[in-house]
Amino acid sequence: MNNSKYLLASKAKVERAIFNINYLESEFKNYNESKPYELKNELDPSTNDIILVYYPLQPIPTNWSVIIGEIIFNLRSALDIAVFEMTVNENGSNLKGTEFPIFEDRNIFYEVKKDGQYTNRSGIYKIRGLNDKSKQIIESIQPFNILNNEETSILSLLHEMNITDKHKQLHLCRCLATSTKVIITKDICDMIDWSMSVGTKLDQRAIISRLHLKNIHDNIDFLTANIDISIEFDKTCSLNFKKSEKVIYILNSFEKCVQQILYLLENSNI
Description:
By secondary structure, the protein is an alpha+beta fold.
């Protein structure tokens, strides 16, 4: 077999995903550099503190979420197409129900009927047309084989987010302040203390900093800030997110995982 011409469709899907990841990374950078926000000094009536308040001027583009869905779909699809092609190569034609299985439940992966045959929903059924080495590779990387239950399987996350994007909702991005430099613009002789929010979720009226003075001033424009914005997945995007996760980091993790699997499968047919 000429391996240079093997799994070309799957590799093309991955290349398209990489192109879109790089495009999004550039878009995020441009968005950050455009400073898509306004900062206002306001008086907190409950404490008389001066607060620096964030007001977004540009919404997160919905198109970003659409592109994220395309990236996730292409990477998940690359795995299914690989199993399809390998099944045809082994058997001369495809077999019904062929796909790349991703299972968190070991029992369902190996589920059998009363006659001892694998059920149609089992993982083994989906890869029954592959050679033994390919089957062993796919079995070994199943999410149920992760030893530490606190870990998140990148394959599980890819599968879950693909289903959510196709059937439920777009994966929305959120802005978070990963680096904030607060600047006091005037000399202050009656400052008691001041504080700065770290990792602030940049929604409407997010408080960036707080300044506590002895006296109330007529002109309260004391604070400004330079903010580095991080575009992240909100925890609502996945049950596996215990905290917000950077979009580009997660997408790159998906891509590297799929690339590695394709490499292993490609070499299982040598």
